[in-house]
Amino acid sequence: MIVTRFAPSPTGRLHLGHAYSALFARDAARAAGGRFLLRIEDIDAGRCRPEFVDGIFEDLAWLGLDWETPVRRQSAHMDDYAAALGRLDAQGLLYPCFCTRAEIQAEIAAAGGAPHGPDGPLYPGTCRRLAPSERAARIAAGEAYALRLDMAAAVAAAGPLDWHDRAAGRVAAAPQRFGDVVLARKDVPTSYHLAVTVDDALQGVSLVTRGRDLFEATHVHRLLQGLLGLPVPEWLHHGLLTGPDGRRYAKRDRSLTLLTLRESGCSSEEVRRMARGHPSE
After folding, report:
1. Known catalytic residues?
2. Chain segment 40-89, per-residue pLDDT in tens
3. Is there a contact between 251 and 12 (Cβ–Cβ < 8 Å)?
4. Does residue 70 have a cis bond before it (omega within 30 degrees)?
């Protein structure tokens, strides 16, 4: 059975782009007689707000969507992500990184630049080269640190991987393009990459539908699935809904939130038609 999901972060009100993604996921499940899930991705306590969670439920119900309950909220499942981190650590694939963003930028500048990946300059590997004794001493001293994935070791451990995207076909995974990604921080004890991978496996999601802007992240997610022995879904990265100026909708576009459209007199049927417009390729 096909299981899809819509997984917004409650950091603002939903906009037309969210409506497109939610309807796309629901329609894909409905067409196959499958299940549609809603998940709240609220791992970032500093940016997520309870009123935006309520707003998500309100907006989606107004659009005519329904979903299974209880709704999984990431903030209530940190133990699941800690367990996944523990499994990666047991494989020797994690290391503590004590570098601040300013220190990383300074090192890159001193080196005359750094290779770039999909998320920008790659981490130069400063803390990967620390001796175990220095790592232990700095942790014991109370220094803040993030946990990074030793990408070279992880790729070697997982071996060749690929995935199937319904739009792009078979794709060879190339997670090394991201460098040593952060999987947890002191203030946010998991990352988007880790949490979404664990959640999709635990919820039995078999078709991940999401915007094409997240296509590159799938390289990392496929690697984590391989390392953690998780089931591999299909993906379908859809186009992004854009406004008249050609820019994709974002939470900064407050005039185009579903709440504002509703309050301006638009019916849910009108907004569904708008949301099912022509996404950019």
Report:
1. 251
2. 999 998 999 999 999 999 999 999 999 999 999 999 999 999 999 999 99
3. yes
4. yes
